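STRUCTURE REQUEST FORM
Protein name: Ribosomal RNA large subunit methyltransferase H
Source organism: Clostridium punense
Requested output: structure tokens
Priority: standard
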Amino acid sequence: MNITVISVGKLKEKYLKEAIDEYAKRLQRYCKISIIELQDEKTPDNASEKEELQIKNKEGEAILKSIKDNSFVIALDLKGKMLTSEEFSAYIQDLGVSGKSDLVFVIGGSLGLSQEVLNRANYKLCFSKMTFPHQLFRVMLLEQIYRGFRIMKGEPYHK
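Status: completed
Returned output:
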């Protein structure tokens, strides 16, 4: 299975980079993992709704250019479906069994995802109704993907 994580925004914090590298290394046993980091657009203080929409659309264009036509796209979205780790694992497994082996997870910038990206998504997933920094969320996503593969394989994971 090929898994790509597309994320808007540069990762600056060393401890987050180390966590991402660790989970990417662990995931190599289960899948081919790649991470695409896209430049985020600067949002001015007190940006108007129109300006925010323009920023989301510009980030969305870059995201869409990074997605192959045959990819199954999972957008991380507050309005998406919430799953347990076990349900998430089963969902990923079902996708693989049904021939969808090129998965793309999309994490938007601080303003979220454009409507065009949400329209392209085959599935919308929500981890929580809480808001998280998108840099930290990248670590959380990789951890859950790793946990999902461990569950799939019947391997222990409570560390």
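Reviewer notes: The CA atoms of residues 52 and 111 lie 7 Å apart. The domain at 2-39+50-152 is CATH 3.40.1280.10 (Alpha/beta knot).
Form closed.
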